[in-house]
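Here is one chain, start to finish.
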Amino acid sequence: MLFTPKGLFQRHQKRFDIYLLRDHITIEAILNTITSKNPDIIANRVKSGSEQATRLVIDIQSDIHYKVLIDGLRSGCQKNQLIKEVILL
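Its structure:
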């Protein structure tokens, strides 16, 4: 994982936070940190992140129950054609 430099984007461009490195391929992704236990906030983060990049890396920093986390991820990904992949840390 590599962080993108600050001066990489112009104002009208979609912005992503990191590059994921897989073999010899670089993939653009958004990095979100979630400290909330509310599934609606997780869904909103997924929806807003999908507008910037098709892949999301979500760093969970709370002791959220896995069923609540899955509900939030599911509601953020439903009917969202922009998302290709969600990676949880």
